[in-house]
Design brief:
Blueprint (H helix, E strand, L loop, with lengths): L4 E6 L6 H9 L5 E5 L1 H7 L12 E4 L2 E4 L1 H12 L6 H26 L3 H10 L1 H14 L14 H15 L4 H11 L1 H12 L2 H9 L6
Parallel strand pairs: 1-2
Antiparallel strand pairs: 1-3, 3-4
Helix pairs in contact: 1-7, 4-7, 7-9, 8-9
Bound molecules: glutathione.
Length: 212
């Protein structure tokens, strides 16, 4: 990918983390501009965030917003969007679903409504995990990528969701058993995906630790 790239987002994982992971996985140099909520009040109405929301991806002084559109653009540039329309649908549907969940969880965390977030995780997430498990198992019994036979943007979205919410150190102690019971193939797939990339491992080990 060509050009000078800056990703503007908050100093949280939120909806920008799959974008950060993609840049690190593919060794694409970018500036990770993490903005504090305190500074955001001055920047929100600045012209670089035309819609008053983050993330904004800046490439050679052009600004792009809307997280899934940004991911779709990157996926096409990098070559991790399927050509087949049915596979593209499978990628889009899983990404749209997880991004929606991610946005809602981020909102709950910003409002400090952690009680509601925990309730959703315990009551509703097991049903989602079983559906993700069924979807993954249908694709060559979960032995390959999440969709089709080659890496797609869905792998990054699913990985980030599984890792940051349930399986990273600190979360695994609480949720690993639930994931193992509802989605054993997905759990194995998540660890395998991480193990397959020294770049991703190194990023995860060195990144700032945020709560959400
Ligand atoms: N539709 C946009 C929504 C972006 C969005 O809601 N961003 C939130 C953070 S995840 C934000 O900028 N909140 C700060 C604000 O609204 O002032 C997208 O998908 O990227």
């Amino acid at each position: 990918m060509e050009g000078e790239i800056t990703l503007h987002y908050f100093n949280i994982y939120g909806t920008a983390e799959p974008i950060r992971m993609i840049f690190h996985y593919f060794n694409i140099p970018f500036r990770d501009n993490q903005i504090s909520f305190q500074d955001w009040s001055h920047l929100k109405h600045n012209s670089f965030v035309r819609i008053g929301k983050l993330p904004v991806l800046e490439i050679d002084n052009e600004n792009y917003s809307e997280c899934y559109s940004i991911l779709g653009y990157l996926a096409n540039e990098i070559g991790i969007m399927p050509d087949d329309w049915m596979e593209k649908y499978l990628v889009d549907s899983i990404c749209e679903f997880i991004i929606g969940v991610n946005k809602n969880f981020t909102k709950l965390a910003i409002k400090n409504d952690l009680e509601n977030k925990e309730r959703i995780i315990h009551e509703i997430v097991p049903k989602w995990l079983r559906r993700f498990e069924a979807r993954l198992s249908k694709n060559n019994e979960g032995k390959d990528c999440f969709v089709g036979k080659r890496l797609t943007v869905a792998d990054f979205i699913v990985f980030q969701f599984m890792w940051d919410y349930f399986l990273k150190p600190g979360k695994a102690e609480i949720y690993r058993l639930m994931v193992e019971q509802c989605a054993p193939t997905l759990m194995e797939w998540t660890y395998r995906f991480l193990d397959s990339s020294p770049e991703l491992i190194s990023y995860i080990e060195s990144r700032d630790q945020f709560i959400f």
